[in-house]
TrEMBL record:
Protein keywords: Lipid biosynthesis, Lipid metabolism, Membrane, Phospholipid biosynthesis, Phospholipid metabolism, Transferase, Transmembrane, Transmembrane helix
Transmembrane segments: 21-40, 46-65, 85-110
Record Pfam families: CDP-OH_P_transf (PF01066)
Domain of life: Bacteria
Topology relative to the membrane: Multi-pass membrane protein
Family, as annotated: Belongs to the CDP-alcohol phosphatidyltransferase class-I family.
PANTHER family noted in UniProt: CDP-DIACYLGLYCEROL--GLYCEROL-3-PHOSPHATE 3-PHOSPHATIDYLTRANSFERASE (PTHR14269:SF11), CDP-DIACYLGLYCEROL--GLYCEROL-3-PHOSPHATE 3-PHOSPHATIDYLTRANSFERASE-RELATED (PTHR14269)
Annotated InterPro entries: CDP-alcohol_PTase-I, CDP-OH_P_trans, CDP-OH_PTrfase_TM_dom, CDP_ALCOHOL_P_TRANSF_CS, Phosphatidylglycerol_P_synth
Name of protein: CDP-diacylglycerol--glycerol-3-phosphate 3-phosphatidyltransferase
One GO-annotated biological process of the protein: glycerophospholipid biosynthetic process
Subcellular location: Membrane
Length: 199
């Protein structure tokens, strides 16, 4: 038996596109290029830290809105995509700025692209692959690695951000392998409320 949280308001059906959660996701996507320009101009600054913090925190907001108003196939696709654009954009900008090595960033990028292709492939059959808990944790660790690299206070201790980045690499690869090992079992039709929610 599925127990629904009492406060859930299933206002949006599984195929809805114009939802509050998607609005937050799209705003995050539109704002992200400004951050990348900022990092390229000055890799470590308080302005970039504040902007990154806001973009990372709003990751939780679109997930919460999705759980409140109803999870959708578009949200299950768009939310992880926005995270990838944001995190990969910031990581590549930090490589370009000489702050991160290319190898860990390339490993993360390979997994993120592979899972996006996998999601798109299943999406063509009307299936969604909502983010799993471990994948959400890996996104947070990726965001922490970027945060530590941007933070002026840790500029003299680059090992901190590097350790966080390698931890993110491990979580990224393991969580990616989980999706692939589960195969279509990781997907849901979202015909009814998804058991795993986007966010
Ligand atoms: O690893 P993914 O592709 O499921 O993405 C996870 C999301 O970034 C969590 O918000």
């Amino acid at each position: 038996m599925t127990v629904e949280p009492a406060e859930v308001d299933d206002r949006y059906g599984p195929s809805a596109l114009a939802t509050p959660a998607n609005a937050v996701t799209i705003i995050r996507l539109l704002v992200s290029p400004a951050l990348l320009v900022m990092i390229l101009r000055e890799p470590s600054s308080w302005a970039a830290v504040v902007m990154w913090f806001v973009l990372a925190v709003t990751d939780g907001i679109d997930g919460a809105l999705a759980r409140r108003f109803g999870t959708t196939r578009s949200g299950a696709f768009l939310d992880p995509l926005a995270d990838k654009v944001l995190v990969l954009g910031a990581l590549f900008a930090l490589v370009a700025a000489g702050r991160f090595a290319w190898l860990p960033v390339a490993l993360i990028a390979l997994r993120e692209v592979a899972i996006s292709v996998y999601r798109t492939h299943l999406g063509r059959s009307g299936l969604a692959v909502p983010a799993r808990t471990l994948a959400k944790v890996k996104t947070v660790v990726q965001e922490v690695a970027v945060f530590l690299a941007l933070l002026p206070l840790t500029v003299d201790h680059p090992a901190l951000a590097d350790i966080a980045l390698w931890l993110a690499v491990a979580l990224t690869l393991v969580s990616g392998a989980q999706y692939l090992l589960d195969g279509r079992g990781a997907a849901t039709t979202l015909g009814h409320r998804a058991q795993r929610t986007a966010g």
